[in-house]
Specification:
The complex is a heterodimer of chains A (about 110) and B (about 110). Chain A has strands at about 5, 10-15, 20-25, 30-40, 45-50, 55-60, 60-65, 70-75, 85-95, 95-100, 105-110. With about 110 residues, chain A is mainly β. The chains are: A mainly beta (about 110), B mainly beta (about 110).
């Protein structure tokens, strides 16, 4: 079993839709959970991260962690064509190491 | 601030050739890492460094060498290129103050080995 699993998509939604992106992970000891956005042919950029359980909101983006079910989510409200990218979930495992999901490709149609 | 820079952007090698991928950062970050990204595999850690003179292996280190003589630079060397090393390579840096959680990535090097 992989330490973090992410559906690769692609996910296609109309402009203005609410998008839900999800990952599951295997080790209940993990504490830091991140979401990166990667545009085509660019490097990943950190969107936001959360520590332990709960929600964190930044503008149209909300990250949610449910440690009881080992499930992490990223919600995008009022999605825009500029949100079209690959979204990578990531977990800091300690010892200066981070593991990444395979990424979900999102297309937002105008 | 240029952030994290990588050169070259693209490279084609023949099997058995060697080369060095360059990475530099101007944020005075202690931690630097090299990842490779393959379709369906996500980012996989090759080598990392927690400071000048200190390096360690990641998940997929075979066929690669690193060194870190300065805080700013972290080159990745391919010793004898193989087609299995065809990938996109990303360098990343992070600050020790944040325990290395927030990583800043370079633009990547696309490598093809024929």
């Amino acid at each position: 079993q992989k330490e973090v699993e992410q559906d690769p998509g692609p996910l296609s939604v109309p402009e203005g839709a609410i998008v839900s992106l999800n990952c599951t992970y295997s080790n209940s000891a993990f504490q830091y959970f991140m979401w990166y956005r990667q545009y085509s042919r660019k490097g990943p950029e950190l969107l936001m991260y959360t520590y332990s359980s709960g929600n964190k909101e930044d503008g149209r983006f909300t990250a949610q962690v449910d440690k009881s079910s080992k499930y992490i989510s990223l919600f995008i409200r009022d999605s825009q064509p500029s949100d079209s990218a690959t979204y990578l979930c990531a977990i800091y495992t300690g010892g200066f190491k981070t593991i990444f999901g395979a990424g979900t490709r999102l297309f937002v149609k105008a | 601030n240029a952030g994290v820079t990588q050169t070259p952007k693209f490279q084609v090698l023949k099997t058995g050739q060697s080369m060095t991928l360059q990475c530099a950062q101007d944020m005075n970050h202690e931690y630097m890492s090299w990842y490779r990204q393959d379709p369906g595999m996500g980012l996989r850690l090759i080598h990392y460094s927690v400071g000048a003179g200190i390096t360690d292996q990641g998940e997929v280190p075979n066929g690669y060498n690193v060194s870190r003589s300065t805080t700013e630079d972290f080159p990745l060397r391919l010793l004898s290129a193989a087609p299995s090393q065809t990938s996109v390579y990303f360098c990343a840096s992070s600050s020790a103050r944040g325990e290395g959680v927030e990583q800043y990535f370079g633009p990547g090097t696309r490598l093809t080995v024929t």
